[in-house]
Amino acid sequence: MLKRLFVLFLLTPLATLGQSIDPSFYKELQYRSIGPFRASRTVGAVGVPTQPNVFYMGVNNGGVWKTDDYGRTWNPIFDSAPTGSVGDIAVSPTSPNIIYVGTGEGLHRPDLGVGDGMFKSTDGGKTWLQIGLTDVQQVGRVIVHPTNPEVVIVAALGHPYGANETRGVFRTKDGGKTWEKVLYINHNTGAIQVEFDPTNPQIIFADMWEHLDGPWENASFSGPNSGLYKSTDGGNLE
How does 48-66 read in b/e, with b if 16+ C-beta sit within 10 Å? Predict the structure, then answer.
């Protein structure tokens, strides 16, 4: 009898692999804060699909933090950088030790922090190298090509308080050695978001924002060039 029960116990998990999970098993689960509790507001966080225990969080005015134990503990890994204002962080899907950080929080608001360009790590955040775009001041989004870690697209808002030319969408094809401006509208219009089509990285969508903050709070300019733009050739200039 014991032998029969033991065999039944072993076979039961195999029989239930193809079955859906009863929602009653997880309906009581709730979101909870897992830190880091000494950071700040953030719009930039990313996980590593091949390493489910690893997450990075870029904080608007608190640097970059990393956990390798599912969020139980967090460690600051960006303290050696000349700025603590982070707009976004991206990890290469195929080379997860390659991390790109866009500094400058990427938001136009009454109180904000500007950054010092793009940074790159090739060792999972142990060391960092500044790789350009030092005058964009605010980065709204960073994305890495799904199969080529050398191709990176950056949405740059530019200077928050004045018209300037470092606005728009920038691309590197050599891991940050060189950059090209692939979408530019005018000196008042920056890019706040950019995304690959999940089925085709040659298709890129960019969200442009024509906007300037005033030197006083809650006063700003917004123009008509804001909107969604699309490239079907990987962002190449015409």
Answer: beeeeebbbbbbbbbbbbb
